[in-house]
Specification:
The structure holds two protein chains of two kinds.
Chain A (H helix, E strand, L loop, with lengths): L2 H53 L44 E4 L7 E9 L15 E9 L7 E8 L2
Chain B lengths: L1 H55 L11 E4 L3 E6 L8 E7 L16 E5 L2 E4 L5 E9 L14 E9 L18 E8 L5
Antiparallel strand pairs in B: 1-2, 2-3, 3-4, 4-5, 6-7, 7-8
The chains are: A alpha+beta, B alpha+beta.
Chain lengths: 160, 190
């Protein structure tokens, strides 16, 4: 075999191994995406469950008995969080601030669910407010070791 | 001698290449079928979830007494003016056993029935294999006291209705894709 033929054979073997490697990695990626989709679906369900749970609560500790028209009487921004309540006996929305728990589902275990609650501007619900307003935003985050990205669902509650 | 080695070597490499191409082709086909089935599975789950969600959110609407009459893990009966015609309707959800869903390949699937004012209607199976209801009070604690129910947790186990032989994620003894859907519904009128 001449040198040129040897070089060509080595080159073709190299190309073959590269194609094989790429093919296997494509196979793996496809399988990973298939599993991840299922985990995402459950993560969305878990986030939605928590939002549904929060919907049942009062707007604020100060409006448990009577509603208010005075924003200043609402819980201050720095005090958002449970007063003395312990989960699951939360009574208002901001008790869920910094709340977190773990959950398992048939597809995969070790979901971590956490929530943040803060006031948002009444004219621009995307911007956080440092003062009390009649809009509270709840961000629910679900993470899992099997997810590349966290699932974040947001809901804005209004004082009625 | 060297020619024979050359021929054997090139045949071996050519064979490997052919096998690789064959596998690639098979994988592309099976991947397309699997993702199509997976999509159908998720659409079925969402359809079932939307049907249930639509009715359960209205539990107790315009009804002054205890709105939930039966609260079992696979059977619920409740009252609501579901069609807003000022008449209280009774709605029931329950499931069949696995023998009734004969139109699909999956031996485990069941039919979800919706009984509206005494008339039962079962839709297509949509691959539902397990349907579980849990009832929670205002503190998210499981309760069986009908008046205390504030949340209904619905869990759906849905499988593909046709066999999935190509996927790597199915049990060879029961080759069907599987998905799980759960939702917690807080009917506003109870």
């Amino acid at each position: 075999m001449s040198n040129i033929q040897s070089m060509l054979a080595i080159g073709s073997l190299f190309l073959l191994s590269m194609v094989s490697l790429n093919f296997n990695s494509a196979l793996l990626q496809s399988n990973t995406a298939e599993i991840e989709n299922k985990v995402y679906l459950t993560a969305f369900s878990l986030a939605d469950d928590l939002i549904e749970e929060v919907k049942q609560k009062n707007y604020d500790e100060k409006t448990l008995v009577f509603p208010t028209v005075n924003r200043g009487t609402l819980t201050q921004t720095a005090s958002l969080g449970p007063e003395s309540e312990v989960y699951p006996f939360f009574d208002d929305i901001d008790d869920y601030n910094n709340f977190s728990r773990d959950a398992d589902a048939p597809h995969s275990e070790s979901y971590h669910i956490s929530a943040k609650v803060y006031y948002v501007s009444e004219t621009d619900p995307d911007s956080k407010s440092n003062n009390q307003t009649f809009h509270k935003r709840v961000d629910v985050t679900v993470s899992s070791p099997y997810l590349n990205n966290k699932v974040i669902l947001t809901f804005i509650f209004t004082h009625k | 001698m060297t020619s024979i080695i050359d021929i054997l070597g090139s045949s071996f490499i050519g064979g490997l290449l052919l096998l690789l191409l064959l596998k690639l082709n098979l994988f592309a086909n099976s991947s397309s079928v699997t993702s199509d089935n997976e999509l159908k599975l998720q659409q079925n789950s969402k359809t079932l979830a939307e049907i249930i969600n639509y009715d359960f959110r209205k539990i107790g609407y315009e009804y002054d007494s205890t709105a939930i009459a039966i609260a079992d893990s696979e059977h619920i009966k409740f009252y609501a003016d579901i069609d807003r015609n000022n008449t209280i309707d009774s709605i029931e959800y329950y499931i069949s056993d696995t023998t009734l869903a004969t139109g699909t390949e999956n031996p485990r699937d069941i039919i979800l029935y919706r009984k509206y004012n005494g008339v039962a209607m079962g839709g297509p199976t949509l691959g539902l294999t397990k349907f579980k209801l849990s009832y929670l009070d205002e503190f998210n604690v499981v309760t069986n006291v009908l008046d205390d129910i504030r949340y209904i947790k619905v869990e759906l186990w849905v499988e593909s209705t046709i066999r999935e032989m190509e996927s790597n994620f199915v049990n060879p003894n029961h080759p069907y894709l599987f998905t799980y859907w759960e939702m917690k519904i807080n009917p506003r009128n109870i």
